[in-house]
Design brief:
There is one protein chain. The protein has one helix at 2-20; strands spanning 43-50, 53-54, 58-62, 67-73, 79-82, 87-90, 95-98, 104-109, 122-128. The chain is α/β, with parallel strands linked by helices. The strands form three sheets. It has a four-stranded mixed β-sheet with strand order 2-1-4-7, with no helix packed on it. Strands 3-9-8 form a three-stranded mixed β-sheet, with no helix packed on it. A two-stranded antiparallel sheet has the order 5-6. A hairpin with a 2-residue loop joins strand 1 and strand 2. The termini are far apart.
């Protein structure tokens, strides 16, 4: 009886581990550039963060144009939060494809409590028509 229970428990553990073992950061294997969202990016934007600032004061995107946004961390532990795009990136989850659907000027801030300059780590995102 104990051997049967141990065998069943082992099989269940094996199934759980197999289901969790995929590489979520792997590139799409179909070679089309289409991401998990089903959209191929037409533009790319890289945001780089280092101690208490981003590499640019403003970033500009076009409304309706799918863009691959990549976050790079150069110094310290930081992330990027863009509420207008419902986007949060950090060193572990550093890339996403989004399509801006409204124009305007929006805040970009650090998403990781990074120290005394955290509240000043702000840039602007301008989405043009």
């Amino acid at each position: 009886m104990r051997k049967t229970l141990a065998l069943i428990a082992s099989c269940m553990l094996l199934f759980v581990l197999a289901a969790c073992g995929g590489d979520k950061d792997a590139a799409p294997s179909n070679g089309t550039g289409v991401t998990d969202t089903g959209v191929a990016p037409e533009a790319e934007l890289t945001i780089t963060g280092s101690n208490y600032h981003f590499d640019q004061e403003t970033y500009t995107l076009k409304k309706g144009v799918p863009v691959k946004i990549t976050y790079k961390n150069e110094q310290g532990n930081h992330g990027v939060l863009i509420p207008a795009l419902n986007l949060q990136l950090d060193s572990k989850n550093n890339t996403a494809v989004v399509t801006p659907d409204k124009t305007g000027e929006f805040d970009i801030s650090c998403s990781v409590m990074c120290g005394t300059g955290h509240t000043k780590m702000i840039s602007k995102l301008i989405i043009e028509e």
